[in-house]
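In this section we walk through a basic example: taking a raw amino acid sequence and producing a predicted 3D structure, encoded as discrete structure tokens. The instruction is simple. Fold the sequence below.
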Amino acid sequence: MKTTKQLLGAVSAFALVAMTSAPALAQGTSAGSTITNEVSVSFNVNGVAQNAQTASDTFTVDQRVNVNVTFAGTAATSVGPGQANRAIAFDVTNLSNSSVDLALSAALNAGTAGNISNFRVFRDTNGDRVLDAAEEAAGPITFLDEVGSSANGVTVAVIVLADIGLNAVNGDTFDVTLTANAHAAGGVGALGTELVESASNTSGIDTVLFDGAGDTDVARDGAFSDTGRYAVSGAVVTLLKSSRVVSDPVNGTNNPKAIPGATIEYCITVANASGAATATDVNLTDDLPTDVSFLTGSLRINGDASCTNGVAGGTFTAGGGATGGDRVSGSLSDVAASQTRSLYFLVTID
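The resulting token sequence is shown next.
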């Protein structure tokens, strides 16, 4: 997170202290205000007081433009692969001495572009950092309209939404930058023209850009930016299938061989060894080869990594396979990080 840095130029040490104290961030006298100073002179002629003379000067207060953007989170927002409408929150503050429109844009600053998309900005009307139904119904915005000024600045809460790609993997991060760019207050419902520094002094309201350098913008460009982060917590699922000969008609269980009539155990494991999130709704489907026959009552689910300690469950469907062969299927309990679950069963070789 950043706070606006003031670009002061060459000033004395005393002036630097004065300008960087808290009042320097405040709105100050409103742009367009007129300040009049009057002076008078009195004098005598031959000891007699004459009519006093007066003179005055009036000037118009110019527009000092300063805007700030602050990521409202304290840490990265945890997301999962394939999740849509994931939110990060920002505060956008007008520190100018006039009302302005603030054009908003959200963009990826770091991370794999192909795995995050569809950036949208919404106004967080109640400031709870959550996109509520009414705020979503109001629709995304591209600018903040007629943001006023006050002694301590006017802050508007906004939410940025993004969709996380299905191919994002555990440990990926996405840095998303929100930029607010100051425009003239262009009337309700319309974005005014972009504010630029006045080239010379005029008798009207001139513009001085006073913003600092944000994450992706430079000082005194009329804009400011800050960055929030998404961090992917995914399940890294590894699927393995193995087989072992349990017995055969000749050798029994003593060094059995895979000959016709032998009993084979198929072991299917689902591991989430290096994931940071739990794999849920884990469903297995195994279409059996045509030269084996399922052994009724042998199907077990939720076993451990060595295909033991499972419980009866799952489904055998004769002829239910994709090509008309037999099918074994089963649902496993959630597979948490660093956990392995298994489904296993017996067949005989035809």
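Looking at the output, two observations stand out. The CA atoms of residues 61 and 233 lie 52 Å apart. Residues 1-25 have pLDDT under 50 and may be disordered. In the next section we compare this with other chains.
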